[in-house]
Amino acid sequence: MTKDQTGSGLCNGALSFLYAEAKKEVEELKLIEKHHKTAVRSLPEWMYNYLYVCRLLERRETPTLAYIRKKLASENKTLTMYGKSAQAIALSGTTYEKVAHDALQSVVEHTVTSPEMGRYFDTDRAFGGWSSYRIPTQTFAIEALQRLASQMPKIDGTANAQLVDELKLWLLQSKRTQVWNTSRATTDAAYALLSQSAGANEGLAWGAVSARYKVDAAKVQATGNGFRLERRFEVLRNDQWTKADDAVRVGERVRWVYTLIADRDFDHVSLKSTRPAGLEPREPFSGVEWADGLLCYRMVRDAENEYFVEHLAKGKHVFTDESIVVRTGQFDGGIATVQSVFAPEFSATSTPMTLKVRP
């Protein structure tokens, strides 16, 4: 894997440790099978990743590797997309060639595609991390396609090279909205993008033009690019939160219910929500909080609240923020806006509202 003396020593030491752990685990599993007279159906996925490494380094065959390979060949529905990519690579060129081909076929079948985003995974079986998202899974799928390109030049009628380019396009598009602040995510992505380029994404670039203008708040319409934002106003009555269709009273507890939908993973997102003059925040202090499952920094300003989210995963997020009604009158509630600080071209606004308060 590396000709550097220091790197080679570290690699060999790690492989020796992994082999000892794998051998120990296999011996225990064989005892369990002998005692219960039934076969163990599944192994920890790290053992399959170890088999993948041994396959790349062309390590000599051992009973431990043969046992892991046989179990990997019998896996069907339990593997993640990362595990299936390892299965395809580790079993290719062995007596389990068909299993390898079926695994890669399954990986492709679990992807979706769009002209803008390319090809990507939209399934819970494609695991992601807090800061690396699904980049390791994406890059491993690219590697599996490239390593089996000569054996499977087409999958479901689509050329192997085209599948790779579509997967790479998703990586490039993801970089528009993500920081990739871990060495693994960056290294995996760089390796995948630079390896065996077919040229379809060569020279890909993007840009955006933005303009600021003033308009009557009552005329603002809900719009969005990359986001969809809804803001609902509720009041607490009889211990139940209900939609505030009519006027509220001084002293009542009210809340905003924000529904934020992101069409991709975003880093560094800012949501600003104007606050009617007749309301005061029930929690007046700024700080980090867990807003109904969304970790954010909440900043209380004179006329608005701002929420800064470091990592916003693709999907639907709903959270609330309470206020107290403090004065009577009719107040302009303004709008809520959300924007990616990392990629400002992605933003959304909610519809405006008017607040009526009676004594």
Ends apart, CA distance between termini = 76 Å
| Unreliable stretches | none
Number of helices: 8
What is the strand tally? 19
Q: Describe the global form.
A: elongated
Read across the widest sheet, the strand sequence of neighbours is 5-18-17-10-14-13-12
Main sheet?
Answer: 7 strands, antiparallel
As a percent range, the share of helical residues equals: 25-40%
Task: Name the helix and strand elements from N-terminus to C-terminus, one letter apiece.
Answer: HHHHHEEHEEHHEEEEEEEEEEEEEEE
Structural class: alpha+beta
Beta content: 25-35%
Mean pLDDT: 89
Radius of gyration: 27 Å
Task: Tell me what you see in this structure.
The chain is an alpha+beta fold. It is 35% helix and 30% strand. It has 8 helices and 19 strands. A 7-stranded antiparallel sheet has the order 5-18-17-10-14-13-12, with no helix packed on it. α2 packs parallel to α4 (81-91), α4 (81-91) packs antiparallel against α5 (97-109) and α4 (81-91) packs parallel to α6. It starts with a helix and ends with a strand. The mean pLDDT is 89.
What is the gist of this entry?
It is built from eight helices and 19 strands.
Q: Main attributes?
A:
19 strands; alpha+beta; 8 helices; seven-stranded antiparallel β-sheet; 359 residues
